[in-house]
Amino acid sequence: MRFEFLREIPEAPEKDWFESRYAELRTKLEKTPDDAPRERWVELARHWNEVKAVLSGERSRRQWAEAQDARDEASEKAALLFRNEVDPVGVRENAVARKRFLGRTARAAVESRFGKQLPLLWECDELGADPRTVDLDVAANNLYAEYSKIRGVAQIDLDGKKTTLTQLTNLAESPDAARRSRAFLALAGFYREKKTELDEIYSKLVSLRAQAAERLSMKSFVPLGYKRMTRTDYGPEEAARFREATFEHVVPLLADLRAQQARGLGTRAVQPWDRSYFPAFGLPPGIVPVAGQVAAARKVFGSLHPRLAEHFDRMVARGFVDLENRPGKRPGAFCIAMDDRDEVRIFCNSTGAASDVGTLVHESGHSFQGWESLPIEALELRWPTAEACEIHSMGMELLSFPHLDAFFEPEDAVRFRRHRLAKTLVLFGYIAVVDAFQHEVYEKPGLSPDERAQAWTRHWKRFMQGEDWSGHEDALGRFWHRQLHIFGMP
User: Do 441 and 206 contact (CB within 8 A), yes or no?
Assistant: First the structure.
């Protein structure tokens, strides 16, 4: 990013630097009358954009370092300091600037330069990033970091070896039924042991978010949650229609799929440890060794378009692909941008399982969109809203289908594609469960942990038909403890 208004940016800027830069911007805004020429408002918007870029970039760098090793006290301290001291400065100062830019003349100037979507996103932030809730949001972000650390440092015994949560989760695809069962029981045991702790964290998160909505005179966190996802044209009514359409059109297909799966397994219904293993197209653990995944992915992207290969090569060469699962590394996968330095990175937890391929290609799809969007000057327009972002990632998964021989033998590539399509049916049902669960939780923030478990189970049985959790009802009721989005991105 080329800077016109900021000079001498520190390697790791702290609170005082951001306070000074925002003070300079605020002084300019105070001296600018509402009816100032359009060019003046565009200049101020570009100045504000540069400050936000450094704020966003530094936040991302600290999040990246914290995610790489949950045991690294220095990275944890740096990220905590940013959440507690720097982010509140940005929330307060951005709110002041935003009010000026949403004035009629300023808004018209911004729209003439950047388009109409940018002010619409700012309108979402009017409530979504309101200074009146900053203390609650800081507390919530720290609780989410605590949740992530619990999962990141976990080391669980399986067959005499210490394993990470990701390794245990990926064993759900093993063709060895006994090993799948042992892995499930070990994972369920970990979450049973942490049940009270995770329930307490989530109860505090729900309470903080309910308080935030109350401060903003909202009847519940639900409308605030939609604002924070910058949903400008997609609300609870649309989400409800999606759930009902899923129930009507997808759930019957999913029930048939589960029945077919059970026949292949020789069971009456699909057991919880068999959910991710489809006998007709399952692939064994270790089928895609981690050491070869980068080269195979590069081959896939080169087959699609040389520009994609260039983006991927750039990330690999600059150390922007953190691929392999390891002790201390936080679970999950994501793509992240350091906007001020024009960097896009991807974070995975590869173990050699076939599902690694989908994850790596998925996050690469996000990153390609990120690299292609770097020329867009307005920071908020570089990334689509959460739903549209998935077009690039899930679209890349499907675009890669004809080129998967780079990862697999031809017959295994066919099995992988069929498995991926089967998992898509499961995903539709799961999305509906998560969505319905969160609406209920935030519409009834006083639910007890056990009542939340009952709600989750009720929604699961409606949308995830064909599974038998007999004897493991407690594990089902707290299955959502595994979903980081429920804790960190409601």
Answer: yes
* Of the candidates 366, 482, 384, the residue with the CA atom closest to the CA atom of residue 434: 482
Of 242, 215, 217, give the one whose Cα is nearest residue 231: 242
Q: Which two tokens stand for residue 392?
A: 């690039």
- State the SS3 of 405-444: HHCCCHHHHHHHHHHHHHHHHHHHHHHHHHHHHHHHHHHC
Which amino acid, one-letter code, is at 357? V
**233-255 pLDDT tens trace:** 889 999 999 999 999 999 999 99
In terms of residues, how long is the chain? Answer: 490
User: pLDDT tens, 383-433?
Assistant: 998 778 999 999 999 999 999 999 999 999 999 999 999 999 999 999 999
With 0-12 / 13-18 / 19 or more C-beta atoms within 10 angstroms meaning exposed / middle / buried, residue 407 is buried
């939340």: which residue's tokens? 452
Q: Is 438 exposed, middle or buried (0-12, 13-18, 19+ CB in 10 A)?
A: buried
Q: What is the pTM for the complete model shown?
A: 0.91
**Dmax (CA) of the chain:** 76
Beta bridge mates, 270 = 467
The dihedral through the CA atoms of 225, 231, 233, 238 has a sign that is negative
Q: Which amino acid is at 8?
A: E
What string of DSSP letters covers 199-267?
A: HHHHHHHHHHHHHHHHHTT-SSHHHHHHHHTT-SS--HHHHHHHHHHIIIIIHHHHHHHHHHHHHHHTS
Coil/strand/helix, residue 120: helix
